[in-house]
Write a structure and sequence with these properties.
The protein is of the alpha+beta class and 301 residues long. The chain has helices at 25-29, 51-64, 73-86, 160-171, 215-226, 240-243, 274-287; strands spanning 5-8, 11-14, 33-34, 37-42, 45-49, 92-99, 115-122, 134-138, 176-180, 186-189, 193-198, 201-205, 231-234, 246-251, 255-262, 265-266, 298-300. Strands 8, 9, 10, 11, 12, 13, 14, 15 and 16 form a nine-stranded mixed sheet that branches. Strands 1, 2, 3, 4, 5, 6, 7 and 17 form an eight-stranded antiparallel sheet that branches. Helix 2 crosses helix 3 (73-86).
């Protein structure tokens, strides 16, 4: 197995040599921020997908919580490219992570500079049965709203509710959960955005539905509009999940994954629909560099 390296505060360390004390407030209280980024093999070499957008969200997440990063967006982008190159990743997943490693009781540390690490690994499909489609359950665990925690900050502690929702779904025999917000409208999956297709229109929850504004979500909206699809961003009711023609998730890990069953109700034909397939194919061509329409989204290593 090839030696793997983690970028940590400007230097590369062997994967096995990076250690953090159990008493750090990041472990104790979830005070960390992270990103998930994909890179893909193309004819022109490996390319990182929408790197600047991910790096900007990382920096903005820190700003929301007054975390002191000690790294600029541009420096983070350069470090991601270096990490992919150092580890010789071809089709991979990249995880920038900011965390505390000081050993002090308590959780108020905005004046203490965080550590920043970047890990890159080879990575395949997030869902094993991605092509056939997955089965979902609407979770009894609600998505937190911005009066409780900022949903636009990709902070470690935000994902405790996601863990509970997915655990409940898995224990009930489903692949994934779909969460609703406190007002009863559809929010997102445990780590994915939601899209519906109804009578040829693409529908996705609007920004007020308390979910993380995904970068893959934004990519799909732009690709859909480029091929003439009508895109509606609005509040989505739970029952619309049962009666739509197609349903799919988007996310860095999930990419575009069809949902073929919700709460034991078949969605559409019970398999990947034509619009989902069309968008999935365009997405694959885009990240591989074959489709040049959105080539500016690719940062070549």
């Amino acid at each position: 197995m090839m030696q793997q390296y983690i970028w940590l505060n400007g230097k590369f360390k062997k994967f096995e040599d990076v250690k953090v004390h159990v008493f750090t407030p990041t472990i104790q209280y979830g005070l960390g921020i992270f990103e998930g980024i994909r890179c893909y093999k193309t004819a022109k070499g490996v390319a990182v997908f929408r790197l600047s957008e991910h790096a900007r969200r990382f920096v903005e997440s820190a700003k929301i919580y007054k975390f002191k990063l000690g790294i600029t967006q541009r420096q983070l982008e350069n470090a991601v490219v270096e990490t992919v190159r150092k580890n010789k990743i071809k089709n991979g997943y990249i995880r920038p992570f900011a965390f505390y490693d000081n050993v002090v009781m308590g959780f108020f540390y905005p004046e203490v500079q965080m550590n920043v690490s970047i890990t890159a690994i080879e990575y395949g499909n997030y869902f094993k049965n991605k092509e056939a489609g997955i089965k979902c359950k609407v979770s009894s665990w609600q998505k937190v709203n911005s009066e409780i925690l900022p949903p636009q900050a990709k902070v470690s502690g935000n994902y405790i509710s996601s863990f509970l929702s997915r655990l409940d779904a898995r224990d009930s025999g489903f692949d994934e959960a779909i969460m609703v917000s406190s007002d009863g409208h559809v929010a997102e999956g445990s780590g994915e955005n939601v899209f519906l297709v109804k009578e040829g229109r693409l529908i996705t929850p609007s920004k007020g539905s308390n979910f993380l504004l995904g970068i893959t979500r934004d990519s799909v909206i732009k690709m859909a509009q480029s091929i003439g699809l009508v895109v509606e961003e609005r509040a989505v009711h739970r029952e619309e999940l049962y009666t739509c023609d197609e349903l799919f998730f988007t996310g860095t890990a999930a990419e575009i994954t069809p949902v073929v069953d919700v709460d034991k109700r078949k969605v559409g034909s019970g398999k990947m629909g034509p619009i989902t397939k069309m968008l999935s194919d365009k997405f694959s061509r885009t990240v591989s560099g074959e489709d040049k329409e959105f080539e500016e989204w690719l940062t070549y290593v």
